[in-house]
Specification:
- The chain is 48% helix and 7% strand.
- By secondary structure, the protein is an alpha/beta fold.
- The protein has 3 domains: 9-106, Fumarate Reductase Iron-sulfur Protein, Chain B, domain 2 (Orthogonal Bundle); 170-267, Rossmann fold; 280-389, Rossmann fold (3-Layer(aba) Sandwich).
- It is globular.
- The termini are far apart.
- 47% of the residues are buried.
- The structure holds iron/sulfur cluster (2 copies).
Length: 390
Amino acid sequence: MRTNFSPAQLVDPQVAAAERQVRACVHCGICTATCPTYVLTGDERDGPRGRIVMMQQMLEEGGAPAPQAVHHIDRCLSCLACRTACPSSVDYARIVDAARVHIETRYRRPWLERVLRWSIAFAMSRPVLVRLGLVFAPLGRRLPGRLGRLARMGAAARPRTEPLARGSGRRIGLMPGCVQKALAPEIDAAVSRVLARRGFDLVPMAGAGCCGALAHHMGRDASAWTDRAVAAAQGFDEVLITATGCSAYLKEPGHPLGAKARDFLELVDGAKGRAPRRLRVAWQAPCSLQNGLRLADKGRALLVDCGFEVVGIPEAHLCCGSAGAYSILQPGMADALRVRKLANIGQVDVVATANIGCLHHLSGPDAPPIVHIAQLVDWADGGAVPYVLV
Ligand code: SF4
Ligand code: SF4
């Protein structure tokens, strides 16, 4: 596609990267049918092709973007199903990342929206504040709107603190992360047990915190988090973060930790035992695993190897609506995608996923029990039954 960026605009490496991808788009529309928001609304502006046109126009014009363009770009989940589907290898992430920074720096949102976004970026990336939020969440359950939604999500959390297991082999730094550390610390514990049995020594990385993905996907500057993580990773050849949304972010082109970053599914090959019960498991591979890490099939194979009956999910490529802070910022769209995902999952004994966002977003009284895949592997290895299955 032809572009009209000025040389001055292309000095910005992020804009230059976006421009290269816009030029590669031939407007064939093959990506459109894979886009969850287009599937819901049928509006070209809620699909990747329409968004690329809007984002190009917005970046070329350079000034404050039109509210309508912001509305449709905000509704993008950054699930990257369009990137996987594109026959021209257009890296949509490079375009939407530049567009989000442009919006964040040039568009004045209503003050309530600004407060909400700032609060998410500040509080949700700090486990201490998330834990504090969990304490007060029950008080806010009746609040209207998105604050009430956030409170209800927090009130439903049942975090369990378990010690990490240490192995005696290949040394890997464990990034603590943020939301998961507060909402479900038992996931890292299960991962550590699984890896210890396979000869890995998982060592908590002192000084690291949030990976910065949450802020990055809202167009905010995540460099402070990156700097902390890079400093904490000194002395480690490999680092692990146990949410796929975070590991996919660390592995995006240009991230300074890209060469060191590992995902749980890269490290685990095969089961060490058999599941004590033959359960019907729906494997809900997060978008970050399907379209970023490309390890969705490995997760399925691992569950089968553990002796579970893995059932397919129709429309598996459609995001569940979690997408970082998306479920808070775009509750209508996120709820519609959740309902659709649960209908596609149907009647199963348990849902396995690999990202805290999906796990928490899909959980609820209308859903089957949901666990991180490491918890099922740990159980099959001979560890404890995941508490949601007791
Ligand atoms: S499939 Fe690729 S080339 Fe075709 S419209 Fe989508 S992004 Fe552009
Ligand atoms: S990233 Fe996902 S929601 Fe956004 S345009 Fe691509 S397919 Fe649609």
